[in-house]
Design goal:
The structure holds two protein chains of two kinds.
Chain A lengths: L2 H23 L11 E5 L6 H15 L7 E5 L6 H9 L6 E4 L3 H8 L11 E9 L2 E5 L7 H11 L4 E4 L5 H13 L4 E4 L3 H9 L5 E2 L3 H9 L3 E6 L26 E7 L5 H16 L1 H10 L7 E2 H21 L5
Parallel strand pairs in A: 1-2, 1-3, 6-7, 6-8
Antiparallel strand pairs in A: 3-10, 4-10, 4-11, 5-8, 5-9
Helix pairs in contact in A: 4-11, 6-11
Chain B lengths: L1 H13 L2 H19 L5 H8 L8 H25 L9 H12 L3 H35 L3 H14 L8 H15 L2 E2 L6 E2 L14 H21 L12 H11 L3 H16 L5 H15 L11 H17 L1 H7 L5 H12 L8 H4 L1 H32 L4 H20 L2 H19 L5 H23 L6 H4 L1 H35 L2
Antiparallel strand pairs in B: 1-2
Helix pairs in contact in B: 1-17, 2-4, 2-17, 3-4, 3-15, 4-5, 4-6, 4-13, 4-15, 4-17, 5-6, 5-13, 6-10, 6-11, 6-13, 6-14, 6-17, 7-12, 7-20, 7-22, 8-20, 9-18, 9-19, 11-12, 11-13, 12-13, 18-19
């Protein structure tokens, strides 16, 4: 036995006594990360999830919520398949968390070979619900959802709807519209919401279902027009835009959840720690201001089992949507 | 004179002590980040983003823009000194920078890179200052069809890149395209070519993985073999006089530098293109337009100046769509854009109106950053050159370690490190069989962009291929591309004719 390991052996009782003292003086829930935490982003750099992860990182750092740093790592491959697989392979690792998109539901459904079951993941907290609106160019004659449906029915397959890839949130929402109104458009995928927005303004496509943050700049410059918000309540940024329920189609509601989840089999202490930590982030002034300016809903905090139940409902909803579009059987 | 007033205001903002400090700090950090293989401006800006929440937005963007800028300069350093691209934007710099270094002219290559970067950066920031709004409109006119045409133009500029053996060049391009297709199909979302079911293939094969494999590992193997272990890098003894010589020598590259500045800028402002394709295109154009294209790849200073000029011009260019349209022109600006949103700014057509201090402060700082980086660079040349004085037995392991770290850093996946080693060996063998390897690197960069633009266009037009020639802008670019392909062919045919007529003359 080498000298250094002897030394470690000698230290063992000391460590044991110390940690006992710590445990007895504080509650068991006082687990804290012992090394930097990997903050996995199941999308590429520059997108919504990436922005949020980096904002959370800075909020954690600035307010000293954690002694250990959170390190954002992008794993965008396969619409998040890479990230999901990574979390699955790291089962039981207490030093990994991940921020999600709705591909959290759709990617495992579309790739059963991935072997990922999201119900085994450890739910932490739901940070936000991102919203969607229906957009056309401001030069267009279309002023309402009714005009829109009429115009699309005339043009049929010549109508170009922009979005971010088959099976992504925009395509699901497009699918919902198609099923609801019985038309069929040509869906053109682009690498990101920003590019989709730009192609609408450049008139390369006819309509989009962008998030508020992706279109707000063009909207304020008078270049794009929102027709309807796919939300239960009006969005503060767009007080004049009716909700889907107001125009008589209350079932057209769609959100993208942004939640924090950890790998399967994470210890209860670590889960409690992360729930507490992200609740602080959720309540912080910076986070709430960000949500308000970007048209994102951040009123309701869901954590732990509540989040797990929410995931199950959403998963079922997405299964139906994907089936409706013929993307899964 | 409204612009001049605004610009002066911008200079005033950029010159405030805090902003000036941030800019200098950013340039220096960027220089080192860029010089580290695998750590490019993307990683540098992403890592430093949270730090910027401590300063006001204008200071934050000045700092990060300086990092971006410094990294563009820094990328050239390891490309030239070690032969491994410090960043994806500096791959084309290896083509001629490395041969120059091996000939003991590393300092010349560094001067060419620094001066090119300075001119490219300055020309593009002037264009930015004067024509931001009309250029933003121009960028909006670029739909998928135009992007596809532009990519065809990029491929056309490379026809001459592989040397004379056209079949081998095509093979190399094909290998690059196949590697580029690995990963997720962007249109359907289905995985493609996930070899052996390895999850690492889901994120595709990063172009840097191939570049580091070829130019890092492959180059070490090549050098070891050709030198039998006894490597002699001719050492440039540093003297101020040599720098003066370098400047004199660089006169021949003036046309290249100016044209690369404009090319880089225009490619940079187009969303989704960015500095890497810009630098590769500039290299291709410089070679095609050169009087003696045969010296390219063997240590031509224009071959260093062109890509370095273009990547700096493009990095400024890519800020235009970011600021005026809220769309990233490159992966790095995508992160900057995220930063702006977090700082509470709304990029878009109204930013110039609503946040003049921010926009003009940034523009002012770009002028300064240019000036500052060129000075640091030239001042550091003796230090960089001294790296080459290390014996190869020490340098080779360092390069090897940098390759491994550089491959691991971007994705933090060992899978990519294995790929680097495999590519290094395979492409070393291909090189022994006289296959040109640069076209494979170009193909893996441009392949995904081309495929996406092509398929988007065809999906949008329901498979109607005439869309590419019906749209005036895309048709014009395609005509240019065809000209670029035909031009060297005519040149070659004419040379052949001349040769035959000379031969005929000898034997009447």
């Amino acid at each position: 036995m080498s000298f250094s390991s002897l030394k470690k052996l000698a230290l063992l009782p000391v460590i044991a006594v110390c940690s006992l003292a710590v445990i007895s003086s504080t509650a068991l829930a006082q687990w804290a990360p012992k090394k930097p935490v990997e903050f996995i982003i199941m999308a590429g750099t520059g997108g919504g999830a990436d922005q949020m992860a980096r904002l959370m990182q800075s909020i954690i750092q600035k307010n000293e919520f954690s002694k250990q740093p959170f390190i954002p790592i992008n794993k965008p491959g396969g619409s998040g398949a890479e990230a999901l697989r990574y979390l699955k392979d790291k089962s039981g690792d207490d030093h990994i968390v991940m921020i999600t998109l709705n591909s959290f539901y759709t990617t495992p459904l579309q790739n059963p070979d991935l072997g990922v079951d999201i119900s085994t993941f450890t739910p932490i907290g739901r940070m936000a619900l991102d919203t969607f609106l229906l957009w056309v160019h401001s030069d267009s004659d279309i002023k309402s959802l009714e005009d829109y449906v009429g115009a699309v029915k005339v043009k049929g397959k010549d109508w170009k709807m922009g979005g971010t890839g088959q099976g992504q949130e925009d395509s699901l929402l497009t699918g919902m519209l198609q099923n609801k109104f019985g038309f069929e458009v040509t869906y053109v995928p682009f690498p990101g919401g920003g590019t989709v927005a730009k192609n609408l303004i450049g008139k390369h496509i006819d309509s989009t279902v962008n998030n508020p943050s992706e279109q707000l700049g063009f909207f304020e410059a008078g270049q794009s027009r929102p027709l309807v918000a796919f939300t239960p309540d009006r969005l503060p940024q767009f007080p004049d835009v009716p909700t889907s329920a107001e125009v008589g189609h209350g079932d057209l509601v769609y959100f993208m959840q942004r939640s924090i989840n950890a790998p399967p089999g994470v210890s209860a202490e670590a889960q409690a720690y992360y729930i507490d930590l992200f609740k602080k982030v959720f309540d912080s002034k910076e986070w709430q201001e960000f949500c308000a300016s970007d048209g994102i809903f951040c009123d309701e905090w869901l954590a732990g089992d509540d989040l797990a139940a929410y995931h199950q409902t959403e998963k079922a909803k997405h299964t139906d949507l994907l089936k409706g579009m013929g993307l899964i059987k | 004179m409204e612009i001049l007033d605004a610009l002066l205001q911008g200079f005033a903002t950029a010159l405030s002590p805090q902003n000036l400090m941030l800019m200098m700090l950013g340039c220096i950090i960027g220089l080192f980040v860029g010089a580290m293989p695998g750590l490019g401006s993307v990683n540098g800006v992403a890592i430093l983003l949270p730090v910027t929440f401590l300063v006001p937005p204008t200071g934050a963007i000045i700092f990060l823009a300086a990092v971006y800028y410094g990294a563009m300069y820094g990328g050239a350093i390891s490309s030239i000194m070690l032969g491994i691209p410090g960043a994806s934007t500096a791959v084309a710099t290896v083509f001629d920078g490395r041969p120059l270094a091996l000939q003991g002219k590393a300092d010349w290559a560094l001067v060419a890179a620094a001066v090119g970067s300075f001119v490219g950066g300055t020309v593009s920031v002037i264009l930015f200052t004067l024509f931001a709004p009309p250029l933003a409109d121009f960028a909006l006119k670029f739909g998928p069809q135009e992007e596809f045409a532009l990519m065809m133009l990029a491929f056309a500029t490379f026809i001459g890149l592989g040397g004379d053996d056209i079949p081998k060049t095509i093979f190399s391009i094909a290998v690059g395209l196949v590697l580029a297709a690995v990963g997720l199909d962007e249109i359907s979302g289905q995985p493609r070519m996930i070899f052996f079911d390895l999850p690492g293939f889901y994120h595709g094969i990063n172009f840097l993985v191939l570049a580091i494999g070829i130019y890092g590992i492959g180059e070490i193997l090549w050098t070891l073999e050709t030198s039998q272990g006894d490597v002699k890098v001719s050492q440039a003894s540093f003297a101020a006089k040599r720098i003066v010589d370098a400047f004199k020598k660089l006169k021949a590259s003036i046309v290249t530098i100016i044209s690369s500045s404009f090319l880089g800028y225009f490619v940079g402002i187009l969303p989704a293109a960015g500095a890497t394709p810009a630098s590769l295109m500039a290299y291709g154009v410089a070679k095609t337009m050169s009087k003696d294209p045969n010296t390219f790849g063997k240590g031509n200073m224009s071959g260093v100046a062109a890509p370095e000029t273009a990547n700096n011009a493009a990095s400024t260019g890519s800020m235009l769509p970011m600021i005026t349209l809220g769309i990233p022109g490159s992966p790095t600006t995508a992160i900057l854009l995220g930063g702006m949103i977090i700082w509470g700014l709304r990029p878009g057509p109204l930013l110039f109106v609503n946040q003049p201090e921010f926009v003009w402060g940034l523009i002012g700082s770009l002028y300064m950053a240019n000036f500052f980086t060129v000075i640091i660079n030239i001042a550091f040349i003796p230090l960089f050159v001294s790296v080459l004085k290390l014996p190869f037995t020490i340098l080779a392991p360092i390069i090897f370690v940098l390759c491994i770290v550089g491959g691991y850093a971007p994705t933090q996946d060992l899978h990519d490190v294995w790929l680097i080693v495999i590519f290094g060996v395979v492409f070393y063998l291909l090189r022994k069989l006289n296959y040109p390897v640069a076209p494979a690197v170009l193909a893996i960069v441009l392949g995904p962009l081309t495929e996406r633009a092509l398929r988007q266009s065809l999906v949008a037009e329901q498979g109607d291929i005439t869309t590419f020639i019906e749209r005036p802008l895309s048709a014009t670019i395609l005509v240019l591309a065809v000209l670029l392909i035909v031009l060297p062919a005519i040149k070659m045919a004419r040379q052949k004719n001349n040769r035959t007529s000379v031969a005929d003359g000898k034997q009447p």
